[in-house]
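Q: what sequence does this backbone want?
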């Protein structure tokens, strides 16, 4: 699902239940830019949205990333994606490792495949891109962020929408808000957790007093 559609669907049934003009196209092309209430809801939607994604990550409901390494010490800043947590290192078998700041150190051998959680960026209104009009065929091209590139499934997006709706409803209808938030949390837990590709026999802490 596109980030823009997730934001749109999250607020659609909170404020504009009976407004047929509140379409995705109108929303993305600025028809409601001067609407004070809508602008407030858009800004307010991103905090619970990012919170829900972080929650899914902490619960291991977002697929792990993998990165090959070929040296004993590796700067995590060189990985293709920002690193949140190292899950493990393996090379036919688990490779013991330790993490010192932004450096990954293999304690045996000098190569392996690193399994890690991506540190997904914090999204904001600035990430919403207007639709691009194609004069040749009269259609609109949507260049907004597709959340599947982060491993966030359509099911997870539906549950994030439920969570954001609940948060947006808190100042309006607290009881209904609690229902949506609790429902979303149950949905999060029902998603299949990711399993480690290998069991680590030796993992040293990131920081040790005296080092």
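A:
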């Amino acid at each position: 699902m596109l980030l823009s559609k997730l934001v749109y669907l999250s607020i659609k049934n909170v404020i504009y239940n009976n407004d047929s003009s509140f379409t995705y196209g109108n929303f993305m092309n600025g028809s409601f830019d001067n609407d004070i209430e809508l602008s407030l809801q858009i800004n307010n939607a991103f905090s619970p949205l990012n919170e829900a994604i972080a929650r899914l990550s902490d619960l291991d409901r977002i697929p792990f990333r993998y990165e090959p390494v070929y040296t004993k010490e590796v700067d995590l800043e060189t990985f293709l994606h920002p690193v949140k947590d190292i899950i493990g290192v393996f090379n036919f078998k688990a490779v013991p490792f330790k993490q010192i700041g932004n450096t990954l150190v293999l304690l045996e051998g000098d190569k392996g495949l690193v399994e890690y959680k991506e540190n997904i960026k914090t999204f904001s209104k600035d990430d919403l891109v207007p639709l691009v009009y194609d004069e040749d065929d009269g259609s609109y091209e949507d260049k907004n962020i597709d959340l599947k590139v982060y491993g966030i499934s359509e099911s997870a997006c539906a549950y994030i929408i439920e969570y954001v709706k609940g948060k947006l409803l808190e100042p309006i209808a607290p009881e209904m808000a609690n229902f949506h938030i609790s429902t979303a949390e149950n949905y999060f837990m029902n998603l299949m957790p990711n399993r480690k590709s290998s069991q680590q026999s030796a993992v040293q802490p990131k920081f040790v007093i005296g080092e």
